[in-house]
């Protein structure tokens, strides 16, 4: 089954670029494209898609209010020329945020995220029940508390007075310091590598020099963390 994609952007050139990228990948299918969010909203009333590539700055109905209008949104990938909306859209649980001009290697990383998310949503849970998995509840808005399973956490990133928690099932913005949140996590499974990053040790794919790699993204290990972090990471391997 191909992954059904919808593109919504008021710039024809931006639509063409994403179309060209998607046409290179055989398991992705473009079901429609629209130059405004209103037409996209009307299309979704009678049609379903797996992922929407969505611009933010559009006339009449912008991308953020478009997302808020969806009762059961599919996966969402923002494609914007501006990065200042990133925090607000992460609070809406978008899967990825691509800043124009979008290079093909970065776009491919987004497609990999889409495939992983869809794969994880269709796989059976197996013998392990959710009650047996460790988790935390975090406050992601004024009223909503979100359960986050610790074994899904990839990276926790400091954003001044907030944190961006990257997991295999989504990204969440919470109001906390990195120190306080890291202290809630089991030290055998997580390590702080920088004043801005705490990472899950078992999600580290590679160690090179003063950096690590997780899901294709590289994170620098701070100088004051380097010796302890490397020792702990390497000693955790079998």
Please tag this protein with its features.
32% strand, five-stranded antiparallel beta sheet, 238 residues, 7 helices, alpha/beta, five-stranded parallel beta sheet, globular
What order do the helices and strands come in, and which of them pair?
Layout: E1 3-8, H1 12-23, E2 28-34, H2 37-44, E3 51-54, H3 63-69, E4 75-80, H4 86-90, E5 96-99, H5 104-122, E6 135-139, E7 145-149, E8 153-159, E9 162-167, E10 170-175, H6 178-184, E11 190-194, E12 197-200, E13 206-208, E14 211-214, E15 217-220, H7 226-235
Parallel strand pairs: 1-2, 1-3, 3-4, 4-5
Antiparallel strand pairs: 6-7, 8-9, 8-12, 9-10, 11-12, 13-14, 14-15
Domain Response regulatory: 4-115
Domain HTH LytTR-type: 137-235
Modified residues (4-aspartylphosphate): 55
Please explain how this structure is put together.
With 238 residues, the chain is of the alpha/beta class. Helices cover 29% and strands 32% of the residues. The protein has a 5-stranded parallel beta sheet with strand order 2-1-3-4-5. It has a 5-stranded antiparallel beta sheet with strand order 10-9-8-12-11. The chain has a 3-stranded antiparallel beta sheet with strand order 13-14-15, with no helix packed on it. The relative contact order is 0.09. Residues 137-235 form the HTH LytTR-type domain.
Give a short summary of the structure:
The chain has 238 residues and is α/β, with parallel strands linked by helices. It has helices at 12-23, 37-44, 63-69, 86-90, 104-122, 178-184, 226-235; strands spanning 3-8, 28-34, 51-54, 75-80, 96-99, 135-139, 145-149, 153-159, 162-167, 170-175, 190-194, 197-200, 206-208, 211-214, 217-220.
